[in-house]
Write a structure and sequence with these properties.
Number of domains of chain A: 1
Number of helices of chain A: 17
Helix content of chain A: 40-55%
Number of strands of chain A: 8
Order of helices and strands of chain A: HEHHHEHHEHHEHEHEHEHEHHHHH
Shape of chain A: globular
CATH architecture of chain A: Alpha-Beta Barrel
Oligomer: homotetramer
Radius of gyration of chain A: 21 Å
Strand order of the largest sheet of chain A: 1-8-7-6-5-4-3-2
Structural class of chain A: alpha/beta
Largest sheet of chain A: 8 strands, parallel
CATH topology of chain A: TIM Barrel
Largest interface: A-B, 103 and 103 residues
Strand content of chain A: 5-15%
CATH class of chain A: Alpha Beta
Chain lengths: ~400, ~400, ~400, ~400
Amino acid sequence: MAPAKKGILERLDAGEVVIGDGGFVFALEKRGYVKAGPWTPEATVEHPEAVRQLHREFLRSGSNVMQTFTFYASDDKLENRGSKLSFTGAQINEAACDLAREVANEGDALVAGGVCQTPSYLSCKSEAEVKAILNKQLDVFVKKDVDFLIAEYFEHVEEAVWAVEVLKETGKPVAACLCIGPDGDMHGVSPGECAVRLVKAGAQIVGINCHFDPMTCVKAVKMMKEGVEKAGLKAHYMVQPLAFHTPDCTCQGFIDLPEFPFGLEPRILSRWDMHAYAREAYNTGIRFIGGCCGFEPYHIRAIAEELAPERGFLPEASEKHGNWGAGLEMHTKPWVRARARRDYWENLKPASGRPLCPSMSSPDAWGVTKGHSDLIQQTEATSKDQLKQLFDRSKSQ
Amino acid sequence: MAPAKKGILERLDAGEVVIGDGGFVFALEKRGYVKAGPWTPEATVEHPEAVRQLHREFLRSGSNVMQTFTFYASDDKLENRGSKLSFTGAQINEAACDLAREVANEGDALVAGGVCQTPSYLSCKSEAEVKAILNKQLDVFVKKDVDFLIAEYFEHVEEAVWAVEVLKETGKPVAACLCIGPDGDMHGVSPGECAVRLVKAGAQIVGINCHFDPMTCVKAVKMMKEGVEKAGLKAHYMVQPLAFHTPDCTCQGFIDLPEFPFGLEPRILSRWDMHAYAREAYNTGIRFIGGCCGFEPYHIRAIAEELAPERGFLPEASEKHGNWGAGLEMHTKPWVRARARRDYWENLKPASGRPLCPSMSSPDAWGVTKGHSDLIQQTEATSKDQLKQLFDRSKSQ
Amino acid sequence: MAPAKKGILERLDAGEVVIGDGGFVFALEKRGYVKAGPWTPEATVEHPEAVRQLHREFLRSGSNVMQTFTFYASDDKLENRGSKLSFTGAQINEAACDLAREVANEGDALVAGGVCQTPSYLSCKSEAEVKAILNKQLDVFVKKDVDFLIAEYFEHVEEAVWAVEVLKETGKPVAACLCIGPDGDMHGVSPGECAVRLVKAGAQIVGINCHFDPMTCVKAVKMMKEGVEKAGLKAHYMVQPLAFHTPDCTCQGFIDLPEFPFGLEPRILSRWDMHAYAREAYNTGIRFIGGCCGFEPYHIRAIAEELAPERGFLPEASEKHGNWGAGLEMHTKPWVRARARRDYWENLKPASGRPLCPSMSSPDAWGVTKGHSDLIQQTEATSKDQLKQLFDRSKSQ
Amino acid sequence: MAPAKKGILERLDAGEVVIGDGGFVFALEKRGYVKAGPWTPEATVEHPEAVRQLHREFLRSGSNVMQTFTFYASDDKLENRGSKLSFTGAQINEAACDLAREVANEGDALVAGGVCQTPSYLSCKSEAEVKAILNKQLDVFVKKDVDFLIAEYFEHVEEAVWAVEVLKETGKPVAACLCIGPDGDMHGVSPGECAVRLVKAGAQIVGINCHFDPMTCVKAVKMMKEGVEKAGLKAHYMVQPLAFHTPDCTCQGFIDLPEFPFGLEPRILSRWDMHAYAREAYNTGIRFIGGCCGFEPYHIRAIAEELAPERGFLPEASEKHGNWGAGLEMHTKPWVRARARRDYWENLKPASGRPLCPSMSSPDAWGVTKGHSDLIQQTEATSKDQLKQLFDRSKSQ
């Protein structure tokens, strides 16, 4: 029998680097298993082999955490999908747990059950209602005995605190991530203050996921860390950013970019961008380092390769990757072999091949958030009339 | 028992659109199963589940051809890999055939056995030696009874003609693709003349794959078609381009770009670029339309969606994709719902988020090709001294 | 006899818009009369016709202020020039006054005597020494009876305050401009605090000139205005920014850009950028609106055209300019005539025609300022050894 | 008495480099003396001091040719101006000759009388009518005894040949320039064939001016030279390109760019671009090297500085310019002094400071030229109705 794995807090307390995985929603959308718009994870039931394969790729690339593919798998969100699903929320969540556990068992990874912001909150439902929704997912996580919990992708710290309060009741370690940048949450609460509230609510790990590029997220986590330390509190820190460059984003992140979600390709980070990110996150004192939307397995591998000196080992997938381009030593063409060196890739400013495109965009910034009637969620699909109003409004901005 | 599938020539003769798959080498490199540099396909034996999954994703996205993952699987290339493999070329090729067949059987797809240019040719070996190498792969394809054969990724029409001559002996339909652009092959033979030679050698389908972006490849195939027609010959046409924008490439294509192969992210085509490509290819009279390096399943799906009116059906994976962004009608944010329309995505000029990067690069252009001593391939890895010479030469360009 | 002109304070007190001129140093460098590096104004003596012509072009374009071309005409700077001049500082300053007065008399313009930061201050000379240097220029301005005085292009508010103190002794109206952005002066004093100190020292007009693009300068003047109002003080405001886009600048402005001073062309503002600037400055409550380095006469004309509704008249040079492109109605080609409309030019995103260039740069940021030995000025030209040290240091940044 | 100057053909026959001047229309538009749209040169009468000053700046920068500012000064064009002028064509042309001669006498420069394409030709008038129009300008040039003649800015070689035939009758040396690129004239005649026709018509010097950037123009002149040599003829060659980067232009050049004429700033060439241009032109065998629209005096100076080794001297204006940035050795800031070297400026890729703008544009390409009704010129200004039609048509492109 294998020795029991070290838990998430044991690892972080020991100063180990814990590598997260990448975002399933975007990766599986490109593979044909998730629908952009609703973004719901019914693939866990419909196409388990595709979900399992992606877990395996992340594990092989160095991930220590198999996050259950339960994003937007709350019942209120599944209902808001606009088209009927043949599966209950519980079925989807259970299948996600089984897949994560199956692959986690193949290596040194833990299973994290994940919850995220709810349509109920955006629609101004009460604290009790929101907590009830979250509890339904949690029942599955407890039943399936995940190793720890992650509350992530919250735009409002108020809802994230509610989530932490619910998750804490399980007795499992709790990590909490907001999807905010240095400007703070959608109600204007600063990252430092957000972190303090999450820690006070009981989260042992706090950080940022999604919505901004790696360096921006690291900067925001740094502000969280400073806030927590200034308040005399203690916490571990995590970061799971986008794999897209977002220098032009304002407070709501990449959602506001005109390229979201079907024109983000030119913004995708290279593996070398990931080296720089991993180093910066490490130097900032963050030890739980992973990814979100846009991350492919090779991005996670780049994190693991950058931090191999600290960790003492390379991930399995590095058998198929020469350090800093060394594999090119075996390329057919001599001028490509000449690129088999670190300084080449570190200094490269990659061209877009798109001379008719700009390098930055003006984000949409409608400035509406929870409490605004535009954000009340509805079960039925947007009607033609509603869409026309949106188009017209969009053009006049 | 299922009715026998229509063969490749039957389909093309009937004017049907045949959708190809995407490039396995790049897709599996990102997933951690192929090493950039050698680019060899031993994953068919080492990690069959990963190869099978990718086949399935392409099938689901609309591909009618499962190309065996046998790129660079000739014995001379496998030996040039610079590190010992535990598998014989025959083992790798056989496993590739089995995987392709298994998935092809799950849908309306044919199996195509693929061969490509050999290190032997670049190293100036004789016609007999090159043909002997190709014959070894062919033995497997015959044994496994693939549906047709593709000779692809040839930079020199001379070698491609040799390949067609070898493949023809099997009696199976033969497609032949060069990896050239409008400027012609590495010895300066024009696309039109190349096509004529390939057709005269016996290829029933001729075209272009890899090395250039879709519009450039379509342009080159158009030149092939004009050459063939002018010569009073007949053929079918195919195109399987890169999913990278390459407006700045010279004759050797993306290999010469400073971003090759680890900094190409900003050049990745969007699904909307693929719509435009599929339409242009169709209008040019090309009926076998697929992809090569950089293509992910959603790129193939975009081809299938663009040509759905002509074909009369959508691919399976479109259950997870609203036409022209329609899925966004169910997005949480109203300003994202406003993007659920064709004219929005068709007119978008996506930003790179990289203000410090240019939009085009100056390609390396060492101007060496078959016959030049720099291109003689060696079995051992490049030595430190050899690398240093390459670096110095590279800097002085 | 013509009626006496209204003074600068009379105009501003009456709420009139006063339009400044553009920077002579850059404009005359392009015309061949000023040397980049030393940037000294001996052209007033050597080539008075060239200086006079530029004054006339600005007058004709709408300028109400003819600023004497006395930038860097302090004796300590002229000595630091590294090559002997045949003229004394007094000669250069006197000629400048005569030229400005001659052209001012041709229209509705005032003469402003200008002083700027001194090498003595950067070299850590005493307050008495710096004031003595400034007094020498002032003697000329008093003798030539200029209409008012401008202390401009100060990086440190400390030296600017000294300058204001000296200028105030003449009894003439005093304007004071720092060349700083929203981050404040080189010692970290905020724009608001800088403005308060200048007003307390006696400046009736305060603002920003040079170093940053128009919108950034307006933003910094806004911060000055808020600082002054919060302190319960009163002042008039002016802004004379660069005609270069500088979104990538840090605290020391365009000096730090790799393009400074010989590669700034792609950053030059269009006339339409100037319309937006003039409107923003006006809306911010700034009434003395002009330009600095990079401004050509047509840029000043654009300010005058944008504010024509407020001022009630167009500048003389508008006889050669159709409003918002209206002159194109007479173009030979019909598709150019189709551009004769405001919305066309207002929405145009002009391309650089430079696909190999980025859109932003990483500024040099050596972080040295007054007090640092690197900034001690020397009379002799930089030696080869000194230059080599600088090159090496530059490469390692 | 000064020795008689060498004529243009003497100089070119002797292999000397002859440096042209820059375009007056654009330079004086920025200074407020020419109206964009009609582009006519009445400033020679209205504001002779401004025209004289620009001549002087070019002379001082190294120009050996003072081209009379008579662009579009044919009577048919002046009538088409859409607003009455108080001057006759003869007055404007005579004043232009006097100004050019006055400044030419101040240095080693010749006076060239210039004619260009006529509205009459575009409006399909007969050869006799077009020649009559050109003869009226020519009468002035003969009366004022200019040193040689330049027929320039012709889009159709047919009209240029007519012009050469008319000019030849004066007995003065004749230069002829088309404003075309490598794709040939508006009727599709190749540069080589165009050159042959011009030489056969009697032009001793042939070349290209305007419409394209320097490298493109040099390429087209090279094609002209090859055509002339292949035909067994002899000629001298000249080039006077734009000072704007135009990599995205099609056959009609920068007129078709969306930025023409009021948004071209980001495309302006730097002095270093001019060094490269001058060298390339020289190496191509062109000896009459100048500029057109966009050239400022410092651009001409850069040509003269690049070719100083061949010519043996620097222009007068180089007293105010250190070679390859050497003047920066005297800059205040040490990091700017570090830029005082050739390799710095030669390798700089200057940023645009415009992250929201693309690097290239899609040119308008209405594809209409002489013979198309859209190009019939009219005397009155475009009517509102006509403009509306143009706008609508423009939007639908």
